[in-house]
Every structure is written in C-alpha cells, then in structure tokens.
Amino acid sequence: MILFRKIDFKNSISLIAFLIVTFTVSSQSIVQGRIINGENNPIPGANVRIAGTQDIGTSDFDGNFSITTNEEPPFTIIVTYIGFQEYEQIVENLNEFIIVDLGVSPFIYDPVAVGRNEFPMSAAIKRKFHNRRIHCGAVILNERWLITAGHCFQSLSNKTGDIKTLRFSKGRVFVSTGSINHKEGKKSEIENIFPYEYKGEKYLPPETLYDLLLIKLEEPLSLSGNNPRNVEIIDESELILSYDGLSAVAVGWGSTKNETAPEELKKTELGITSYNDCLENVAMASRLSKTEICMGPKDKNVFCSADSGGGVFLKINGKVKLMGIITTGSTCENEGTHNNQYSTFQNLVFYKSWIDKTIADNSKE
Hints:
Elements: H1 9-27, E1 29-36, E2 47-50, E3 56-58, E4 64-69, E5 75-80, E6 87-91, E7 98-101, E8 112-113, E9 122-127, E10 134-140, E11 145-148, H2 151-154, H3 163-168, E12 173-177, E13 186-188, E14 190-195, E15 197-198, E16 201-202, E17 213-217, H4 236-242, E18 247-252, E19 266-273, H5 275-279, H6 282-285, E20 292-295, E21 311-316, E22 319-328, E23 343-347, H7 348-361
Parallel strand pairs: 1-7
Antiparallel strand pairs: 1-4, 2-3, 2-5, 5-6, 8-19, 9-10, 9-12, 10-11, 11-17, 12-13, 14-17, 15-16, 18-19, 18-21, 19-20, 20-23, 21-22, 22-23
C-alpha cells in the first residue's frame, strides 16, 4: 500500500522564504568610514557610492558613512562633495574603518570682498557645534523666511531622503544675519524648514534636482535699516533678458585662494550660459537638471563647499534682484586641472509658485 503524506504548503513556502531572506542578509556586507578635509574636520553631506552599483550613502554630521552592499572586496568607493575633487579608494578589507581625506577645499573664482551694505540680504547658516563655523549661505526673502540649498540640511542628517530626519537637523544650526562678517551677525533660531515639495515632485537627496529649501525663523528679523534687508526674486521676463553672455554676481562664504575659512562674505562676477548651450558640453549633459542654470567659466575654479545656499544676483534697472541659489559647484581643483564643467545654480523662476505657496500656507498665526 502506498501512503500519501499531507504536505503543509503554507509552512513550506514560509520556510523557503525565510531561508532566502536569511541567505540574502548573510551575504550582505557593510562598508563604514569617515570623510574629513585637510584640516581634519568632518565633511557632512558627502555622497559615497560603490563603483558599478546602486549602493550609495551620505556622510552624517560627524562625517561618518555606512553602506550596505552585496559586493565582495576588492571594490572601489567613489566620494563626491561640492568644492572637492572626486575621490576613489579601493576597499580590500571589510573590517577596515575607512578614513577618506578630501584635502583642503580650494577657492571661489576671482573673489572680491563685499561692501558693508552691498548684499544685505545675504545670511550665514552656522553650526552650533564645531566652533560655530560656517556651514552654508542663505538669502533673506522677508522678515521670517530665508531660502537655501536643500543639501545644506541633508548634510546634517543621518539618512538619505528622510524628510523627518531632515527637519530634525535644523536644531544643529542657527542663522546669522546683518553683517558681512559672520562672527558679528545677529543670531536667529530656526522654527522649521521646508524642502521643495510641489505638485507631486520633491527634493530627494542626494539628487541635485529640486535642491532647494525654505527656512522659517522663530522670531522676525528687523528689516527697517540697511542691514539686513530682504530681496525680490526676478520674474520670468527679466530672466529671459538676462541669458547668454551677460553676467551675474554670486555671493558666498566659501573658501578662497588665500583663506580656507574666511570670516567675511565674498562675491564673484560670472557669465551666464543658456540651458541648451550648457547641454552641449559633454561633461554637463549627464548631470544637468531642468531647474539649473550654468555659470562659467568652465575652465576655472568657481564655487566651493560653504558657498552652497548663497545667492546669485542681477542688477535690473538699478535694483538688485535674486536670480538663483548656489547648489552645485564644478570640481574645485588646482589651476590647469579643472574637469571642464560649469558650476550651476537653481533657477528661482522655476520655483516661484512653490515659494509663494509655502510661505503663505505656513505664515498663518
């Protein structure tokens, strides 16, 4: 007699699924390390990826990163951060804690000191720790609101693309306004931050698309004098007239040729390149987003680390207006070794509806 045994397919499937998951988890590895600059300071917000894979990570407030991967060593990690040359390192031992030294951040192109009341709408985002050094720039839109680059706050967070964690990071910095020397500015606490999110599209770090963020202060600024002051955003008709061949002024707190951590605000005048002309540059075509505008020259050092979040301004009929926010620099390298890429900034004409709506919706007391 042949006996047939009843099989519990439900439990069998569960067991198979468990074994598959266990095998997958056990085959994964974790790569850990820390990213610093030439002065041994941590670099938050650097992008780290394993070459040839989709495995990516972002360094946290202390410069630490962790990536989970199925790759077996040896493999190469690639580290990129605005203001520094791209860095590659071969990982041969997973038990090794990797220290990545990106060196000293180079300099903004041909910088000039800013006059005391020349750009009073410029502000500094400073860390509450790490000797209160400059973290990013920002621009004053009105007495309660400023605008900056989204990655300035992502770099203070521990998770990629986590908006809740992004908002938590606001407690690690404050805003300094009213002076071209960030050590002499008035301190303001941040009430909340609003990364770009509009009509189903949003900023998802570490991507460069929609790399903008609005800051709401706890207390209003006094804008009755010359410093600080707010600024208007240019409208579309003014932007069209400004394209190709004309110059704009970029203002930032980033490193210069002679200073790695300047205390005073600097400016540089740069030519504007149209979107289509910029796309013709092979080096730019793969990374340029629809919301960005290119600035040159492409064969010189331009924006570096702390310049992020600073403003790009035009003078129209004698009045200074805000055209964009610095978000992505070309790789800042030594003279003669540049990677032939333009620097870019976010075109605020594209974002004006989001800016107006976000401020209106969150200004009701």
